[in-house]
Amino acid sequence: MSSQRVLLNCAYALGLLSMATGLWAADGIQLLSKKWESGYTAKTVQQELDEYVLPGETVHNWSELVTRQLFVDPAARVPLDRLVQAVRRGFGPDCKDFTWKIVRQTEVAVLYAWAHGGCAKDPPQAEYSLMQRAPRGICRWAYATKKPPITEASGRVLGEELAKQSCN
Fold first, then answer.
1. N or C: which end of the chain has fewer CB within 10 A?
2. Per-residue pLDDT tens for 51-75?
């Protein structure tokens, strides 16, 4: 399963994705001592999505991908663990050597990691994601790579870097 399919499965599972999307501008970001360029942005009433790629790459042809996603839910009606479970359920039996790990969890944030050796339509990938409550809803920052694995030491750094990001 690709990182983009994870996003869609999560949104559809919660009924948050409408068919009408509008593009909006997003600047590049600095993460992991790398400059990331905006590869894709979309905004609906229910969610905002920004995907960042390395220079020269696209969201269709990437080696590393950073995603910022905001599920608009200022009244905190959607349980955080429901979103995390929706991501987990999005991986099918066609994903070889699939692993899933909750790295850290509190009432307001979940840091999780997944990896696989390839799915029917996707190459091997690994991802670290942080979902947390934000004033406007549930914020998700994720780093994905097509060069797994992500070591435990790298995962600690990723968790710290993702926690510094904002969904304002």
1. C
2. 999 999 999 999 999 999 999 999 9
Residue 168 covered by a domain: no
Tell me how far apart the alpha carbons of residues 70 and 131 are, in angstroms, rounded to a whole number: 9
Which structure tokens are listed for 167? 């969904």
The structure tokens 């663990």 sit at 81
Residue 15, Cβ neighbours under 10 Å: how many?
9
Tokens of 42: 């979309």
Does a structural domain hold residue 34?
yes
The answer to whether the CB of 115 falls within 8 A of the CB of 91 is no
Q: Is residue 155 part of a domain?
A: yes
List pLDDT tens digits, range 86-99.
Answer: 999 999 999 999 99
- Range(s) of the domain holding residue 26: 3-163
- Domain membership of residue 144 (yes or no) is yes
Domain count along the chain:
1
Element (H, E) at 50: strand 47-53
3-state secondary structure of 142: strand
Number of Cβ within 10 Å of residue 43's Cβ equals: 16
- CATH of residue 56's domain is 3.40.1000
